[in-house]
């Protein structure tokens, strides 16, 4: 005997809660399975600031669809690209089965964002363009007041009021299917009851696999040992939803060998201890050598690519070196979220020794950099100033000022794994597609469980992806019961 519902949702972040509330608003009986306790519910959603790529409350950014489309695949066959621009019913089998987010999905995503924000406002969530940790930026970012925790609590409260049943410390382990392969529900595990069958249409909204070292090594490779989730909620995301669907014939989508990278201080245990101040200093590895352009563009647009270069260094770590000139940058502390102090020394030689670098290496690197710096009369702290080094490899494109005013400071930086890119392929209704491009009946997905991104994350879209496709999944389930 199992527990029977109309909808069984795996995951209690914004994607799962969005699905649960929307389904309950349609009069459906809903169960939410959450591996965490009630106090810890919400996974990564609880810890995120929940940046939203929107220029007003009812309009996404101008490049929303374009950026997603440009990062939806790499070196795609031009014949397939041409097919994707035509009506879906004309696509070949190969095009239907591509592991990319198709144009219709991206368009539907963008089109449903404004209504989703209005829906959340109706639940009591307020939004504003609040200060962010990015001192320079090219894209507006709307935020819910109170961050992701405010979203989680507002949605969970509404779900409870609508009679949604929550099962805490209950983990989805596998799909229940009949002899024709149709999804019937979920097998879950709880400490009290052991294995439990939950019967109903399934929405997988249980995150990516950043909290699972085995899957990280499997998909990202052995260097993934140098990564860690960006917040404690990420450790709950262990990939069961993705794996159980793939086993059932679901199509993979997104870049399984990659993830959203963010620069953080490895010494800190706070949520998202980011270090976004590196464009104003230099980055060096454990050998005391520079290895990348620290400021190719505004920090909101370039931090991911720079962080990936940090991940490539020995032991996956680097150090930003700063001097007292950093205090010329207005509100520079906003770009430093760690709770740990800077490592300081009166001389570069002493700082290098504290960081365990070869004797004289840091001093020599800074000297070469300083000699390549232009006069800093054109320095503009809060906009791209084109103040670039001359004759230095690698170059620094902006904010190139000498590092010579001690005492000197350093922050260690590693790449955090905010979320993994690889996941399940869905259609515009949130239905999981199989490897032939056909919907798997009674199976839906939302949030990080859905694969969409390749190479470069379209910033401030992940939370929106969870909210939008959680709602669309529930609405499709409700419509299919009519």
> Main β-sheet, in a few words?
8 strands, mixed
Give me the secondary-structure category: alpha/beta
Beta content comes to 15-25%
State the CATH superfamily name of the largest domain: FAD/NAD(P)-binding domain
N/C terminus separation: 26 Å
Low-confidence stretches: none
CATH class of the largest domain: Alpha Beta
Number of strands: 20
Gyration radius from CA atoms, angstroms = 24 Å
Enumerate how many helices there are, as a single number: 13
Instruction: Assign the CATH topology of the largest domain.
Output: FAD/NAD(P)-binding domain
Number of domains: 2
Give the overall pLDDT as a whole number: 96
Percent of residues in helices comes to: 25-40%
Please tell me what the overall shape is: elongated
Helix/strand layout:
Elements: E1 3-10, H1 14-25, E2 30-34, H2 43-47, E3 54-56, E4 59-60, H3 64-70, H4 78-84, H5 93-96, H6 103-122, E5 127-128, E6 143-144, H7 147-161, E7 165-168, E8 171-177, E9 183-190, E10 194-204, H8 213-220, E11 228-229, H9 240-247, E12 252-253, E13 259-264, E14 282-284, H10 299-312, E15 317-322, E16 343-345, H11 348-354, H12 361-372, E17 408-420, E18 423-424, E19 431-433, E20 439-445, H13 462-480
Parallel strand pairs: 1-2, 1-10, 2-7, 10-20, 11-17
Antiparallel strand pairs: 3-4, 5-6, 8-9, 9-10, 12-18, 13-17, 14-15, 15-17, 16-17, 19-20
Question: How does this structure look, described?
Answer:
There is one protein chain. With 482 residues, this protein is of the alpha/beta class. It folds into two domains: 316 residues, FAD/NAD(P)-binding domain; 156 residues, Flavocytochrome C3, Chain A, domain 1 (Alpha-Beta Complex). Helices cover 29% and strands 21% of the residues. The protein is built from 13 helices and 20 strands. Strands 1, 2, 7, 8, 9, 10, 19 and 20 form an eight-stranded mixed β-sheet that branches. Strands 11, 13, 14, 15, 16 and 17 form a six-stranded mixed β-sheet that branches. A hairpin with a 5-residue loop joins strand 19 and strand 20. Helix 1 runs parallel beside helix 7, helix 1 packs parallel to helix 13 and helix 11 crosses helix 12. The protein is elongated and about 70 Å long. The protein starts with a strand and ends with a helix.
